Amino acid sequence: MVVAYQASTGQQKIDNPYQIALAQYDRAAKHLNFEESIKEYLKYPQREFTVNFPVRRDNGQVEMFTGYRVHHSTVLGPSKGGLRYSLAVDLDEVRALAMWMTWKCALVGLPYGGAKGGVVVEPKSLTTAELERLTRRYASELLPLISPHSDIPAPDMGTNAQVMAWIMDTYSMTVGYSVPAIVTGKPINIGGSQGRNEATGRGVIIIMEEALQQLNMYPANDVRVAIQGFGNVGSHAAAYAHSLGYKIVAASDVTGGVYSANGLDIDKVRAYVQETGGVRGYPEADYITNEELITCDCDVLVPAAMEGQLTERNAPHVRAKLIVEGANGPTTPGADDVFNDRGIHVVPDILANAGGVVVSYFEWVQDLQSFFWDVDEVYRQLERIMRKSYYATENTAEAHNVDMRTAAQLTAIQRVADAVKTRGFYP
Ligand code: NAD
Predict the structure, then answer these.
(1) Which atom of ligand 1 is the closest one to the Cα of 353?
(2) Are residues 201 and 186 in the same domain?
(3) What value does the mean pLDDT take over residues 91-102?
(4) Ligand 1 pocket, 184 CB below 6 A?
């Protein structure tokens, strides 16, 4: 048995991300008319890989670390998904994130399946040399699974372009020639794509604009946005929204949050975070906690930190009219029910934060062809795919009379299920 999920009893004990992912799957799949065997098949990760490996610390001592890589599905193509370095990483979290990657890639029409990986480690507790040794050893352990045609990792929480560069180099040294297409989210000078770093945050804001149009909420300078998480996704979303004239009234990270009713100067906040490591203490705003950010006075809430942040407990107090999920899995199914009852429009993660994997796909295509695009081309193609995916999801929501999450999931599940049906069950 893969998970302690009580689907058969109908009781959903929502206490971990995989149970959330499965509950969402059940909600969407019941609107679809497809074979029970395919429905059951798509609940399970295709393969799961656990590695335990030693890393030498700078002081000479050797410590053991645990890492994972889960392929949820390879039906539509090679599996794609990020690598997370965090103490909170466990197998159920990785399973959930891998499943969401399958739906995300299918929803936006990429020729990929879904995967995710992670190492149980606080990256800030390692020196750069230790982080490099840990990454190279973890990459070596993943060699049976990864290749440019089977499984292509990317950055996620706690990892970045430098980590991808070490993985690309480790893989290339092993096979004896350079293989840029083995990872995406690399530095540009070794085959990374223009615009990849900003892609997820930019995509979140493209989707936010579509939703604001749908809700008749404009002009930009009247719209107040609160962003939880100020890392890759949150800070780039904040910067792009700010450049379009939106008022970013609140931002937070693991150190706490800041609020300014007049709007934050995002360039100054970014410079402050660069210097101090967090938003806490930023002088031109009031201090708030992460919990206060979620319920602060704003029009749009962008959770862009981690899963499980919007719950039945805080959902009744959320004041935003629109929630655009930058993070993966930030809303529990119980909170979804509250938002639906309260008429709060939620744009789900697999749509809202798909910009990252879309530009990762562009990067992979450019690497395979050794033919590189300029940033305007990247942004143009990103915008085309994001807007098209929003309309498709909105139309499905209307046609089935369901919320945007269910619409996004059922569109994606239908695409994967159709492909399973066409391919058939092997042997
Ligand atoms: P990151 O590590 O760059 O940033 C994470 C941010 O969240 C940091 O500011 C951190 O301080 C903050 N944070 C961590 N724990 C927190 C807490 N308990 N409360 C409040 N803030 C907290 O990670 P990222 O790449 O920006 O990823 C953020 C989310 O977006 C994750 O759910 C990730 O899976 C998802 N995502 C990322 C990408 C991408 O391209 N990086 C793409 C799609 C989805």
Answers:
(1) 43
(2) no
(3) 98
(4) no
Give whole-number Cα distances, 86 to 67, 83, 121, in Å: 10, 10, 5
Say yes or no to pLDDT of 10 above 70: no
What percent of the chain is predicted at pLDDT more than 90? 96
116 a catalytic residue: yes
User: For residue 211, what is the domain's CATH number?
Assistant: 3.40.50.720
On whether the CB atoms of residues 88 and 78 are closer than 8 A, the answer is no
Choice from 108, 233, 236 to test ligand 1 binding pocket (greatest atom count within 8 A of CB):
233
Domain count, the chain: 2
Q: Is 96 in the pocket of ligand 1 (CB under 6 A)?
A: no
pLDDT at position 16: 86
Q: Whose CA is nearest to atom 3 of ligand 1?
A: 231
- Please tell me if the CB atom of residue 231 comes closer than 6 angstroms to any atom of ligand 1: yes
In a domain, 391, yes or no: no
Q: Is the dihedral of CA 28, 383, 194, 377 positive or negative?
A: positive
Query: Same structural domain for residues 61 and 100?
Result: yes
For ligand 1, the distance from its centroid to the CA atom of residue 98, given in whole angstroms, is: 16
Rounded CA separation 404/394 (Å): 7
Do 48 and 168 belong together in one domain? yes
Name the residue type at position 350.
I
**Dihedral in degrees, nearest 10, Cα atoms 266, 268, 272, 277:** 20
Domain that holds residue 169: 43-191
- For 242-255, write each residue's pLDDT tens digit: 999 999 999 999 99
- Domain assignment present for residue 236? The answer is yes
Q: Is residue 112 part of a domain?
A: yes
Catalytic residue among 80, 104, 116, 186: 116
Q: How confident is the model at residue 15, as a pLDDT?
A: 64
Tell me the CA–centroid distance for residue 341 and ligand 1, in Å.
28
CATH number, domain of 161, equals 3.40.50.10860
Q: Is residue 201 in contact with ligand 1, taking CB distance under 6 Å?
A: no
Q: Which of 191, 224, 250 is the last residue of a domain?
A: 191
Among 146, 209, 211, CA closest to 182: 146
